[in-house]
Amino acid sequence: MHPSLLLLSLTLLLPLAAASPPDHPSHFSKHRLHLRNTTATPQEYIEVTRPLPFDSLTPSCTLPLLSHTFANTINLPPITANYSPPSNCTWSRAVLHLSGASNGSQYDRIAAVWLAGAEILRTSTPEPTDDGIFWNVRKDITKYSSILRQSNLTLAVMLENVVNDVYTGVYRLNFTVLYYDVVSNGTTNRRNQKSTIRKLKNNPVRSQNSTNSLELNENPADLIIPISASGDEGFWFRIERETDAVFQGVQIPLNTYRAVIEVYVSFHGNDEFWYSNPPDAYIEMNKLPTKRGHGSYREVVVKLDDNTVGSVIPFPVIFTGGINPLFWEPVVSIGAFDLPSYGIEMTPFLGMLLDGKTHYVGLGVADAISFWLVDANLHLWLDDKADKVQAQAVKYSSPSFSLERELKFQLRDGKFEIEGKRKSEFIGWVNSSAGNFTTYVSHKLKFENTIKFSNNGTEKELKQKVKVTDKVRVESNTGVLILSNELERKYPLKITTSTLPGSEKDTYLMITKLENSIEEETSNLNFTSSLENSQKSEGWMFVKDHDVLSGAATSYQSYGVEDSFGCYNRRVSSANGYITNDTTSFLCASASS
């Protein structure tokens, strides 16, 4: 029977009750779920994404890093291992491969991997079943090559898990690095091509290599400085509130000619679903027991000393216990296995950084409540033909920012709207051995969020739109355009939830629909690329406290990407824990029209 038809039958059988159900909880465990069918064998969970371009190649070498069973690891420091790259191995690409397995009852858990204090992967686990699950994550980590080529480093993995009589699932994780010798577009091996400085000097106009230099994996930095914590509780900073901004001192080499800061972020606890949090006034007026409030605007802000240099509204990654955990069997939500990081161009600020003094990089979360996990990597490109370069900031002004809030409610029914805009433009020049180049950086952000409660607060509708446009342009001192890159990213989100009293004491029925997607358009001098990744899910579940007793769900995901590597399209449908349809195509839309 289709979930919606079964839902109608269940709804008609529910008794009328005066008591209101809990206030839209959003994170659940399946440990009391009445099993519909047992598979008897472990099931693979997947995140739909494009295979890496060199997945079909044989690695030059393979390096097992760490195998560990994460049992009751709450409040323990990260698990560590020694790292040195394999000897006598020629490589230009590196892939981190995570394989995981679990069985029993357990919540999803956040995890991260750091090498020498620099984060190289933020991930989360799926919620296991009694029969067992397994999954694989492959991430291109070539952009961390400057660290990967060093020896005698410490690899650290943080995953806090709780194991007891109820939550029995342990997570068995294996980490391996695969090294590939990939030669593309006629470029030389990374070992023989240390810096883009030669590219800028020898191919100043519309070179494929030059445009690709804006992609971190295509032209890795020469040095990476971690902006991270001490590591006793993981190398991420824990942000409990807006005032918890952290600052770390850095002193960069004087021959740095480009800088990009890469931000890793995830949200948890009372802010795991920050985009659906109502205002504090609504919670206080209705005397609701929830602490998930403070409105639905959050923004990660990056500062250099006292200057705001960038910001990020993160994509709303939903962990596998979130909203309705039946949605994510066995296809997890967008980004759940490989949470995105966010790059912010800081080259215009080299005029401030190249004075030989210590400067402070700050990370904070506007309007945050407990809790956020944030850290960053500062990627630096060095001029190997000069001990010192000259740089100067041409234009800096505090980013323009506006935030409007409107709330109207009567008792538990009401509507809350937030609209925010941010705009910034930074300009600076750097005079290196390749010449004098001026970098123009602009950032535009638009944020809209609407939350509506109706039917005495038992029905909730969330709509959110985020649009980000980032532009980076590099010109010579004669006005010749050297590099140009524009990224437009949109991620709309829509969630509707109806909550009804259940047929048994202290139970309730939740009916949910979800639409979540990310759209990206990238263009530069020689090529364009596009990504469209969307998920649609609907279903119901009977719940007691935060435990799912029974339910049904269907999900559909459409993934499509087109770039210089070609096209990749995949459509996946699932129902009640099983994939019902899975098709893949390498045909480009332009070719099929």
Automatic annotation (TrEMBL):
Signal peptide location: 1-19
Key words, A-Z: Signal
Cross-referenced Pfam families: PNGaseA (PF12222)
Keyword Signal: yes
Domain spans labelled Peptide N-acetyl-beta-D-glucosaminyl asparaginase amidase A N-terminal: 58-397
Claim: Signal is one of the keywords in the record: yes
Coiled coil: none
InterPro entries hit by this protein: PNGase_A, PNGaseA_N
PANTHER family in UniProt: PEPTIDE-N4-(N-ACETYL-BETA-GLUCOSAMINYL)ASPARAGINE AMIDASE A PROTEIN
Protein's name in the database: Peptide N-acetyl-beta-D-glucosaminyl asparaginase amidase A N-terminal domain-containing protein
Species the sequence originates in: Buddleja alternifolia
Organism taxonomic ancestry: Eukaryota, Viridiplantae, Streptophyta, Embryophyta, Tracheophyta
